[in-house]
Amino acid sequence: MSEQLLAEALPGQTGDPREEFLSRAEAIVGAENVIHPGAPEGYLDPYPLNAGRDRWPGVRPGSTEEVQALVRLAGETSTALWTFSRGKNLGYGGPEPRDQRMVALDLSRMNRILHVDEELCYAVIEPGVTFFDLFEHIKKRGLELWMSVPALGWGSVLGNMLDRGYGMTPLGDHAKNLCGVEVVLPDGELLRTGMGAMEGTELGPIFQGGFGPTLDGLFTQSSLGVVVNAGVWLMPAPQVYANGDIAVDDESALPALIDVLTTLRREEIIQNNALCGNVVRAATMRGARRDFWDGEGSIPEWRLEEMRQEFGLGQWNCKFALYGDRGLVERRLEIVRERVAAAVPGARVDARIYEGEDGLPIQHEDIAELDRTQMAGVPTLKPLSTIGWAAEDGGHIDAAPILPARGADVYAFYSEVKKLYAKHGFDLYIGYHLYPRHMVHVTMIFFERGNEEMLGRARALYSELLDLARSKGYAPYRSHVDYMDRIQAGFDFNGGAALRFQELLKDAVDPQGIISPGKQGVWPARLRG
Amino acid sequence: MSEQLLAEALPGQTGDPREEFLSRAEAIVGAENVIHPGAPEGYLDPYPLNAGRDRWPGVRPGSTEEVQALVRLAGETSTALWTFSRGKNLGYGGPEPRDQRMVALDLSRMNRILHVDEELCYAVIEPGVTFFDLFEHIKKRGLELWMSVPALGWGSVLGNMLDRGYGMTPLGDHAKNLCGVEVVLPDGELLRTGMGAMEGTELGPIFQGGFGPTLDGLFTQSSLGVVVNAGVWLMPAPQVYANGDIAVDDESALPALIDVLTTLRREEIIQNNALCGNVVRAATMRGARRDFWDGEGSIPEWRLEEMRQEFGLGQWNCKFALYGDRGLVERRLEIVRERVAAAVPGARVDARIYEGEDGLPIQHEDIAELDRTQMAGVPTLKPLSTIGWAAEDGGHIDAAPILPARGADVYAFYSEVKKLYAKHGFDLYIGYHLYPRHMVHVTMIFFERGNEEMLGRARALYSELLDLARSKGYAPYRSHVDYMDRIQAGFDFNGGAALRFQELLKDAVDPQGIISPGKQGVWPARLRG
After folding, report:
1. Are B473 and A497 an interchain contact pair (Cβ–Cβ within 8 Å)?
2. A501, A503, A507, A520: which to substitute to probe chain B, counting the most B Cβ within 10 Å?
3. What is the CATH number of the domain that holds A399?
4. Are residues A304 and A424 in the same domain?
5. CA distance A527 to A12
6. Which end of chain B is more exposed for a tag (fewer CB within 10 A), N or C?
7. Least CB-CB distance to A121: which of B206, B222, B266?
8. What pLDDT is attached to residue A6?
9. Is position A52 within any domain?
10. Mean pLDDT of the B496-514 span
């Protein structure tokens, strides 16, 4: 099934078959938790890439039992449900289902924090729990725990983790900190994975792995079930926290910079996923495009250089953080300074160290606001302001291909991406997230909502960006709903064996094809072209 | 299917249906790589828990294409294959299949090291590659990489990883360092998981996760396919390595000791899975039981105390390691000393620091033999000598339940396990492996091979140990082939939903039920009771 079919009916359906499901769903969740087609509170991508989409109807269960009943009803009525937790997957479609005939399964009411264990550093939570919720719960109880948060704090902790999103502390690779899920399967049965599959155990959120194949990964980027709660690992609040910046003025120093920072990651000197951004990225946090440039096309190099000097920044501006006690943090910082100075002459390294009193953990209130960021596990909505970059009524789509953590490869890709942005008249926003072996090349394409000319250019740029990435063997680690089939098609080894295998699993686990059809390009048999 | 059925024919089979498969397999792998029933080079658990087992026939493919052809032939002839890599899973059944009518699929000839990347710290290898092989390859090429090795170095790197075994460096949780697998599916098709599913990419062994559900975990402790190569992460050789010991004389100090060490793990001060063993464990490395005690039953407490003093050890003897540069390692060691002294009065901490010359990584040759251990990623066969503990012709079975990393819980379990060992007349061998949130309670039961009286007691003890663990919500993280069904039965949430789900996957992926039937208690439809 391709994007062109988006607005067509599912095969075998006439009229709006969702109405039977929706009206019967009222008996399960209450009329106030059923949103009918055309209702203004219906679901929509806040940043749609095509105009004229209708709002989706949806249901909002409040408990596992309600999810089970809804899934069984969906089976009876052959209704496709599109699952999300908070719908805040901005730049990737938000709450928007893949297909016009689907019903949104909105889990935001299931927002209980079931357990937080300070000693062993984990939580068990439902999908509706936001990063703000968990953060505030930890603060209120005075627990000495830090969590990992992504750019925006209003999203679901589980939703982000299950879509394999990232945060910026040492636990920033969120899917790695998923430990045990409870899932409503497409037939309504309840499954617990890992050690949690034993009645009366407490090992579920403690140990990753059970007996037999490890199943947690199956429920990430998945349409195989509806996760109703999961274990999430947290970290002990450190006694000392440092937040550092590295500024490099020379654009072509990027390869050396990437190589030294990822080497420091591999050696675990830098403990979090360091960020490295360009001048456009810095500018999006300081205002709108019109504040800096009012011409057509990409902001020219000379103006970016002026802006850089006005901001007092480098061409490349990195952030990293350190966690531990004073001795360890100071030594780590010395090593960072020595290595960066040796690898990138002229680089400026600046860092602030925050230490808890009397040997106790540092409190977030005692960290200067500048550094009280996602790297300290503090949820925020600050980056939301960047949405206004291209226009007051702005939106964006995100592209985040994975690259090997090798400076030369990254620079070659960067140089070509830059040309693509110029060709289509957008400003190249770059935020590199640096991991030990790979990097995430995060770019955003900012546009004006509903501006068809600009949207057309954004779609063309996005498409060419995907082609360029694929030509080098790179692929995004997650995707906007509109591009899932296309990205999946790039996984072409042995004639698409990986997709065939995923379809085999899909058909076995969800023979009626009712849960999130088309998620990541995996369609159930009844909807495959 | 229960253990009692081990020696019976598979349903619907008469005579020895393996002969057709084996004779036709000769055309695929050559006659010299087919082992027929009754042949002396056939496969057997070296430490069988029941006498009178026959050696298994087997096939030894040399390439992926041969594995594909064998799997297709197995499908045609309805022959069940039991996959292993080197067959060195000692204490868990070695190469032994679950059922007398199976054919061993021995992957030891597939022993190519396909790629080792020094910069990004990973290898791509085939299942026949042993820890010794990979270590020697790295040394020969002079690569500055360290690997993680388990107790014995002759086993398969992939076999251990896919059975979710452990090593003792910071990368000791082996399954976490698995990155991308190439698998022959039960229909003979070739699947690559993760990013490796793109033709022409190099991201396969670099990034964990592809597009859609993460599949690597499905092929651990699994009967869903035959892994023919996989990516394995390595670490950069550190500049400084320290190996430390902690000795504690008071048995009842165990809870405080466990709590302080696992706290240090959670804070990433201690970077590897520290080990904590008792006096019996120390004695097994110094001789045979008869060298210390010649009476019946468990060695009495007073004698163990004498032995402890003769050895100059504690009741509890821990080992840990540190990795980094001198400043970081020294500070880590100071913290370990301070914390242990505060938590466990009287504990003795001793450590040796090894530093590479001129700022270069430490070389294994420059580490004293005492500390040139698995914690430094050096493969060895030394622990093999412990097999002679109970008798010259000795064997053992291993039990390794997972426990939460809480001292009080561990001590309560220890006290009950101790009584069980005394009841059945065995010496309690304890080796705790300490992780941030969980611990592995490794015990071995040493016996004399073929001594039916002793084997009967070993089986009774093992069985009661499993019951005790289950009663507390604990389960082993892997298992001897004879106990797989029984342990799987303990995963009883929602009437065994986890097993039903695994069976659903098994039947979808392997409808003929030819790959490792019964692995971890998951049987294909045709063999379910």
Report:
1. no
2. A501
3. 3.40.462.10
4. yes
5. 10
6. C
7. B266
8. 35
9. yes
10. 98
Q: A312 CA to chain B: closest CA distance, Å?
A: 33
The torsion angles phi and psi of B433, rounded to 5 degrees, stand at -105, 120
Put simply, whether B222 touches A (Cβ < 8 Å) is yes
Q: Tell me if residue A408 falls in helix, strand or coil.
A: helix
Are B292 and B430 within one domain? yes
Q: What is the pLDDT of residues A70-101, one digit of tens each?
A: 999 999 999 999 999 998 888 788 898 888 88
Q: What is the CATH number of the domain that holds A121?
A: 3.30.465.10
Residue B359 falls within a domain, yes or no?
no
Please report the residues numbered 124 through 153 in chain A whose beta carbons come closer than 8 angstroms to any beta carbon of chain B.
none
Task: Report DSSP letters for A492-512, one per residue.
Answer: -GGGTHHHHHHHHHHHHH-TT
Structure-token match 């140089």, residue found: A415
- The chain B residue lying nearest A500, using CA atoms, is B191
Q: What is the domain range of residue A501?
A: 491-529
How many domains is chain A partitioned into structurally?
Answer: 4
Task: Tell me the HSE value of B527 on the side-chain side, using a 13 A CA sphere.
Answer: 33
Nearest-by-Cβ selection for B212 from A215, A268, A521: A521
pLDDT in tens, B154-175: 999 999 999 999 999 999 999 9
- Asked if A481 reaches chain B (Cβ–Cβ under 8 Å), the answer is no
Contact list in B for residue A473 (CB cut-off 8 A) is 198, 200-203
B234, B480, B501, B520: which to substitute to probe chain A, counting the most A Cβ within 10 Å? Answer: B501
The amino acid at B468: L
Q: How many other CB atoms are found less than 10 A from the CB of residue A131?
A: 26
Model-wide pTM > 0.80 = yes
Residue B424 has pLDDT above 90, yes or no: yes
Q: Please report the pLDDT score of residue B368 as a whole number.
A: 97
Which residue has 């789900």 as its token pair?
A: B501
Tokens of A145: 């725990």
Are A448 and A305 contained in the same domain? yes
Any B CB within 8 A of A270 CB: no
ipTM of the complex: 0.95
